[in-house]
Design a protein that fits this description.
Double Stranded RNA Binding Domain; six-stranded mixed β-sheet; alpha/beta; binds manganese (II) ion; 12 helices; Purple Acid Phosphatase, chain A, domain 2; 403 residues
């Protein structure tokens, strides 16, 4: 059977206040054709189906239209888990109705782990899916009741691992020898063997888990949360599919992917990345005012598809107040849109510099130390903002991977 792993559709997402409805809609139309042409049996969406907890009616319509059209393909099952952007109640509201259509939704961690595990059958072949959603601290804390309360720093991480172990134990009960088991997840997993040196800084109270923390029972782990497609360290079978279209200029020029997993005789026979077509050019150009205008002209000539969106980053020696109107004026003549013009090094670091001056040399500080100092300076309470710290770790890992 063929399983399609996707995540992070972020339906309803806007880029710099511009609606991305058009590329979302084109993606879903293309996806339906892909599912039909490739005879996909099961589709997985590993979290962040919607961009916000209260999605726009337009975003919801995209989802429900997709579900209706999916019924016209040979796809037997769809499994959707909630991500950190989703409101569990939004995902779960139509649960019973969707279940009648072989669509399973898990908006948040369930009371009983049994409710996150699905044993499915496609043409006589069985498969088990542990549809683990994004695990909020308050949803899984019960899992560590009675454990060492002093280990507060690692309690969330421990709870995460416990949750996956419980899911695996339940899969084991349902599983015969020739059954593939797949786990889903929406979290930040640290790169396995290749990033050992950085690994220690990612633990602590964030609870990020590494490739080795996933129970070996799972033949494949279908992750969401990071928007760039990637495998975790050396593990070909633990992957992020990435988002199917660009959600920020930082992803400009990247190729969007999905993953197709093929099983045969109860084993994984093939894991293959599939490129998603680019329905809109979203790009970032850099240079002097003159060079940027030249690059815009080239882009304008070569465009196809939806109106390209561009971020222009001017070199630091450029005069912004002269360059900005010059660029927007030039762009008015073209059929592309410049959404943002910035100077390369706009952010001021003076505040931070004075902050660490009396502490120690900056080289003695880790990036996380610097980030914490900066948050302190801005009166941001990091202890109560896991998401912010999590986002920082993500960016840090990406930059260390040289992206
Ligand atoms: Mn996401």
């Amino acid at each position: 059977m063929k399983i399609l792993h996707t995540s992070d559709w972020h339906l309803g997402h806007r880029l710099l206040e511009q609606s991305q409805f058009d590329e979302q809609s084109l993606y879903l139309t293309w996806l339906l054709e892909f599912i039909a042409a490739q005879n996909i049996d099961i589709v997985l969406v590993s979290g962040d189906l919607f961009d916000t907890g209260v999605p726009s009616s337009q975003g919801q319509k995209l989802y429900y239209d997709f579900l209706i059209h999916l019924k016209n393909t040979n796809c037997k099952y769809l499994i959707v888990t909630g991500g950190n952007h989703d409101a569990p109640s939004t995902i779960n509201a139509p649960k019973e109705l969707l279940q009648a259509l072989s669509i399973h939704v898990v908006g948040k961690a369930t009371e009983n782990i049994e409710d996150e595990v699905f044993k499915l059958e496609v043409n006589g072949e069985e498969i088990i899916i542990a549809a683990v959603p994004y695990l909020r601290d308050q949803d899984i804390r019960r899992a560590i009741a009675g454990e060492d309360s002093q280990d507060i720093k690692n309690r969330y991480k421990t709870a995460l691992i416990n949750h996956y172990n419980e899911a695996a134990a339940h899969c084991q009960k349902l599983k015969s020898d020739n059954t593939v088991a797949i786990a889903m997840g929406h979290l930040f997993a640290v790169g396995g063997v290749t990033s050992d040196s950085e690994q220690t800084i990612y633990v602590g109270n964030l609870g990020d888990i590494g490739a080795n923390d996933f129970p070996s029972l799972f033949d494949y782990v279908a992750l969401g949360h990071l928007h760039k497609a990637q495998q975790i360290g050396a593990f070909n079978n633990i992957r992020y599919s990435g988002s199917p279209y660009m959600l920020s200029f930082s992803e400009a020029n990247s190729i969007k992917k999905m993953v197709v997993i093929e099983t045969q005789y109860g084993k994984i026979a093939d894991i293959k990345e599939v490129d998603v077509p680019k329905f809109r050019e979203i790009t970032r150009i850099m240079g002097t005012v003159e060079s940027c205008i030249h690059q815009l002209e080239i882009l304008d000539k070569n465009q196809n598809g939806l109106t390209p969106w561009v971020e222009v980053v001017l070199e630091n020696d450029q005069n912004y107040s002269l360059g900005y109107p010059e660029i927007t004026k030039a762009a008015e003549q073209m059929s592309l849109e410049v959404l943002k013009v910035t100077l390369k090094n706009e952010r001021k670091i003076a505040g931070l510099e004075s902050l660490i001056e009396n502490a120690k040399h900056i080289k003695e500080l880790t990036p996380i130390d610097v980030f914490k100092l900066k948050c302190k300076e801005l009166n941001v309470d990091l202890d109560n903002d896991h998401e912010l710290l999590n986002a920082f770790y993500e960016i840090l890992q990406m930059s260390q991977e040289g992206q």
